[in-house]
Structures
1.
Amino acid sequence: MRAIITAVGLAATVACGGPATTPKPADTAETGTPGTTPPTDTDTDTEPTGTDADGDGWTVEDGDCDDSSVWVNPSWPEDTHDDIDNDCDGLVDEAFTGVTVVEYDWDAGAAWLHDVDPLGNLDRTVPLSPAVAPSWALWMKPSLIPGVWVANDSLGVHLIDDTTGVVTELLDLEEIEWPKGIGDFGAFGVETHPGGYYLISTINALVQVSPDGTWDVVAQWVVDLHGDPSHEVAPVDLAIDPKTHEVGLFGIGGGYATWSENDGFVLHKRDDLFYGSPYAWVAGSSNEGGHFALATDVYTGENAVFAWQDGDVTALLAWPNADFTPVSFGMESESGDAYAVANGGWYRTVWRLYADGSGGAQLFTTGKDNDSAGFFGVAVNVEEGG
Ligand SMILES: [Ca+2]
Ligand SMILES: [Ca+2]
Ligand SMILES: [Ca+2]
Ligand SMILES: [Ca+2]
């Protein structure tokens, strides 16, 4: 069975497995990482809060989906042949099967999904009906089956059936009577929360949308684009860690904040609207956890995928080609590679960015010779094996 699952969508579709059958440690050790010794909690300062019955350093609360086996926790790689969810991402024996990109042609008013396999071969093309128009400001991002995309023609959140290409509007953002000030700049990001709802980030609020289309504002913060010191962060996008369920909000001036159901909104780094670096423009997450964003180093002008953790930000994957501007990306958690779509002149391309930071290479292009179309969103596809 075919499945598109991004880093965010997976936890909502598949619950973490129950008690597993006895794993074979040798299978995991054969993979070579993270080593032959199960990780243990070596932090003597603080005991983990929560239950860690098997003593592998991962509590149930932190995501140990089998607290009776040291061979199962989020630090392990997935063994694709043992019928066990080794890495606790909610998927059993999953493997990377390629990417899906969306192409939009504004002259033709048409859009398509393209499935590209790991070797760069085009597997399938599905026209979207009706066509969903992406925005230069609001990047389309798939996040679940059916996918969730933001489109600019109606400022809507759309559900896309990736088998039939049928597009259904979940929420017309222009129809909303936003609370004062919240919707002034529209919505910038949309993701699927593992709790079974969608989250939309506006410039100064986080909006929870239920599958029935009802919505509620769950967080608000201070935005002053004139540079008043009270300004906190103006997020261009959000990402949701599928393991911790923590939401990352990435500011236009290098700021970073998080939100979770337990802790609410936490500002980790204030935007600097003049010198903030790196400034993010599209965010993502990985099955393995974490918050990432395509961002620009304001001092060097270089683009890269950066990782955010608390207040710290690290350049992970360098963008290899100055002639193309990356517009969206997805992380492939097993290898650590990222896949990014980029448009340059008449060409729309998919790139693979190498996990070791050494650059990347073009994976796919349509080869079409017009400049009225572009690639906008990309989904990393994972299939459960067996
Ligand atoms: Ca444990
Ligand atoms: Ca365990
Ligand atoms: Ca798994
Ligand atoms: Ca497995």
Note: The chain has one domain: 94-384.
2.
Amino acid sequence: MAQQATVLRLEPGKDFVVTPLIKSICRRCLAYLKAGYPVHLSGPAGTGKTTLAMHLAGVIGRPVMIIYGDEEFGSSDLLGNDKGIVSKRLVDNFVHSVVKTEENVSNVWVDQRLTTACKNGYTLVYDEFSRSRAEANNVLLSALEERLLVLPESRYGESYINIHSEFRAIFTSNPDEYAGVYTPQSALLDRMITINLGCYDAQTEAAITSAKSGMPEKESNKIVELVRHIRENQDISFDPTIRASIMIADIVNKQEVKVKTDDRVFIETCLDVICKGSDTSGQVKKAIENIIG
Ligand SMILES: Nc1ncnc2c1ncn2[C@@H]1O[C@H](COP(=O)(O)OP(=O)(O)OP(=O)(O)O)[C@@H](O)[C@H]1O
Ligand SMILES: [Mg+2]
């Protein structure tokens, strides 16, 4: 039997950290969304795009449909399609000597997430939308501009639906991936308001790291300073994200480990999390000595 798409009810996250920077980004995004414009959060890995999109959807307060971009998608994965057939049989035995049977076979259309969200006025979170091919995302063009969702003829003969006035859309994407994936069409980008999320400031990263790991800010500040230093170091070719800070702080906090260079377990944890198996432990060790002391 075909599955209906799952609808989520999100509350504004209790562990969502709000700093002056995040507050100002949220204020802008919510103003655009309330005015009816789709918002696109763009930024490198680990800059808080998905977390922010979910938080905004929670604040809007409508049911939420989430789609994760996928290169295998076709437009039917967004809109819906025929997922089987239903057969109805009518047996008429009113006159005992005569049995009349009638059989009707029809297709069963199942709405996918975009159609469900448009029809019912839900908030659509389309995470990493640029991972889907432009042809799959084409259906969004008229949805975002004319507020009309064009459907294949097979859907009960309806060729389009008017989009509910409370339908809102939040997109995320990572521009670093465009080279390897599909460049979002300029026509689609032209219909959204794009907010570029760079890495958060040190204060915001420290507040998030402390909140997520339970480590006091005084110590988590040092870990964030270390990770940011390595991220900004031109000689090291990879950029550890806030996830590295959260992981180190969390692991250290769960053990009897000090944020000190003379604690062997602390150094090992930093190297394992930050170096990702690469041959940069010498440079990272030096940074730990300089920053952590
Ligand atoms: N405002 C916030 N409050 C609490 N935690 C946050 C906040 N922003 C980001 N985080 C945490 O930082 C980490 C990275 O955030 P997130 O997954 O949203 O980034 P992303 O930009 O979507 O990354 P990716 O591109 O890899 O999907 C997660 O562990 C997330 O919980
Ligand atoms: Mg994400």
Note: The chain has twelve helices and nine strands.
3.
Amino acid sequence: MEKLLVSVQQAINELRIDDIRGLVQQCLDENIAPVDIIEQGISKGLELVGRQFEDGTYFLADLVMAGEVVKEAMPLIDAQLDPGQVNKKGKVILATVQGDIHEIGKNIVGMLLSANGFEVVDLGVDVSPEKIMTALKETGARFVGLSALLTTMVGSIKEIVDSIKEAGLKDTVKVVIGGACTSERLKEEMGADAYGETAVQAVTIFNKFSAQN
Ligand code: B12
């Protein structure tokens, strides 16, 4: 099993778009859990790509390609996730923050939340605080999940939290943050309600909030 997951990591790191579907299918055929494929195969592979970008071996075009390689494999995994008790636990507004177009982590979080009984309203990437406020009012959602990977763009998390306070929704709406540049400390600084390091943690956190209401 571990060998196959390492092959998935390598295919992503080496940008082998023609191989990725076959490898992910092999993992599924070997009964490797979709969540393990995501966390130990795909996410680890992208970490390796990120390192190559940092040390100057890879360029922006390679990052774009890595994104495409992952997108190629995701429908296979999505199809395997059990929809659970559909949409019973509440609506989650999900977005990547303004100025940031990274979407892979957000999409994984969305997939796992849907599979665990949440109704996900995915606003996409580069989403302004205004758009989030409009969606909150239109849907009546009580949960917001924000993904942020660019350190320069985290300020908009605070803008969103402040807008929620100004709208008098602070006590009803929970804001959860995640993504490579976020942390428990950032959560405190921005006034968010929780920080999740992984998509699996995102599910645990939203489950907890849903049970409290
Ligand atoms: C692929 C990639 C891209 C692709 C994105 C393709 C796509 N369709 O999404 C493209 C090419 C577009 C890109 C562009 C850029 N990128 Co880029 N990119 C990456 C890379 C290699 C992987 C990101 C990724 O998808 N990771 C895999 C996912 C699964 O991980 P994740 O997002 O962290 O999500 C997991 C958890 O964090 C969590 N999670 C995520 N969201 C949420 C939300 C909630 C609520 C919760 C609870 C949890 C949670 O769950 C997920 C699964 O467990 C990273 C390197 C890295 N190590 O992160 C750099 C990286 C993020 N990029 C970086 C940079 C600098 C850029 C550019 C500025 C480059 C440039 N010079 O133009 C641009 C920015 C464009 C923009 N305006 O956003 C830097 C950011 C540095 C920083 N801290 O600010 C990184 C870290 C690379 C590096 N080491 O320098 N990038």
Note: The first strand starts at residue 91 and ends at 96.
4.
Amino acid sequence: MAKTFIFCEFNNGKIKKGSLELLTAAKAAGAEITALLIGPGSTEAAPEAGHYGASATFVCDSESLKNYNPMAWSKVVSQTIKNSGCTVFLATSSMTAKDLFPRVAAQLETGIASDCTDLEFNGDTPIAKKPLYAGKCKAQVNFANSPIQMILMRPNQLPIGEPDTGGHCEIKTLSAPEIDDRLKITDVKKGNTDKVDLTEANVIVSGGRGMKDADNFKLLDELAETLEATVGASRAVADAGWVPHSMQVGQTGKTVAPSLYIACGISGAIQHLAGMSGSKVIVAINQDKDAPIFAKSNYGIVGDLFEVVPKLNEELKSVLN
Ligand SMILES: Cc1cc2nc3c(=O)[nH]c(=O)nc-3n(C[C@H](O)[C@H](O)[C@H](O)COP(=O)(O)OP(=O)(O)OC[C@H]3O[C@@H](n4cnc5c(N)ncnc54)[C@H](O)[C@@H]3O)c2cc1C
């Protein structure tokens, strides 16, 4: 089976769900897996890669790589992939990955497919598909003549297997590269939420223009608290300045695929649907029974969200607590 290299993202000492999905898929395909983690804390998180099937894990556990630096990171990744002799490379299609891996692909003179939603293996060959035209169709990617087949998968698309806590991987430490003076990260401003990022969230409660103003988003925050969900929004709302653009879901916002997406006061424009139609269950709350969002929803509630959302929250609280 193909030597498969997986870039694992991690947070608070744990490998992120999207990366666990990739480890699971490669393990199920019988691949020989090498993982790579970059940044402070990577040594602590590395053993988990072994529990999900990696036989070796590289770590570059350096304070100098605390913040994403495209030049330093691409140097580490390209060199490590090259030395590994892998023919398949997998990573999550995160914001960082979409900036980093095209650079790496260029350095390795190989092909890359980002934003994929389907991944299967046919023997040594990975078969990936990615949505086109705002999700109207999918293209199967062919990596003819690419020495390494690099695939970036959207999170929440594949199952995560049970960890084998007896599974060990050899941990190999890499030294950090010199930081190139041409590009310096001087400051990173984190969002003011400790919620899971929209692209990784399992449950999302989203608000649109029907929320009427910014203050009313506290209704969605309350519902999100009950459901351990992350709050998203339509572009109309982000453009109006009611919420930051980082909360926008859609063609020009984030692409999400949670288990449950609750759309409140969102009409269901094609550009919004492009970002959330991969959700497993969609619930829409809208006072207009003809709103297009209902055609894409598994459950629809026709009504005033200012009445429905608080009632729904009370009911869910009594069931879940
Ligand atoms: C190039 C391009 C890219 C775009 N990218 C995106 C994108 O990434 N994401 C995105 O979302 N949009 C995007 N848009 C904008 C998109 O076309 C829509 O304008 C936008 O999604 C509409 O947002 P909305 O559903 O919140 O507002 P509206 O379309 O105004 O819908 C508001 C809904 O709220 C309902 N409502 C009102 N009051 C209540 C109430 N009290 N209770 C219940 N329901 C109520 C109404 O019935 C209505 O259906 C893009 C547009 C373009 C041209």
Note: The chain has a mean pLDDT of 94.
